[in-house]
Amino acid sequence: MRHSATTPEQLLWQCLKGRKLGHKFSRQMPIGPYFADFLCRELKFVIELDGTSHDQSVNHDIRRDAYCHSLGFQILRISNRDVMTNLEGVVSHIKTTLAQAHPHPLPPAGGE
Prior knowledge:
With 112 residues, the protein is of the alpha+beta class. It has helices at residues 7-16, 58-70, 80-85, 87-100, and strands spanning 26-31, 34-40, 45-50, 74-79.
């Protein structure tokens, strides 16, 4: 893991772990040289929480998002403030987004 979990990460993890939203999520999972806050491999779906350091790391986030998108991952960014003040709304938004998420199919074997 890249750091100890923040309070918003801990709160959201309680809502995601154990397939509570119908899909398996993992915390602090590597995707190439980057780490995803929360990852659902089955849907190639990443949830990133943005806190006060987000403003200082925008260029890093842009590079990470571009890299993840190039591999077919969908990224949902949520502010720490939203998690802290509207966790129910955040979870509802994640459920809606998950219902619309579709993993990119792998190319056929043999290059066809």
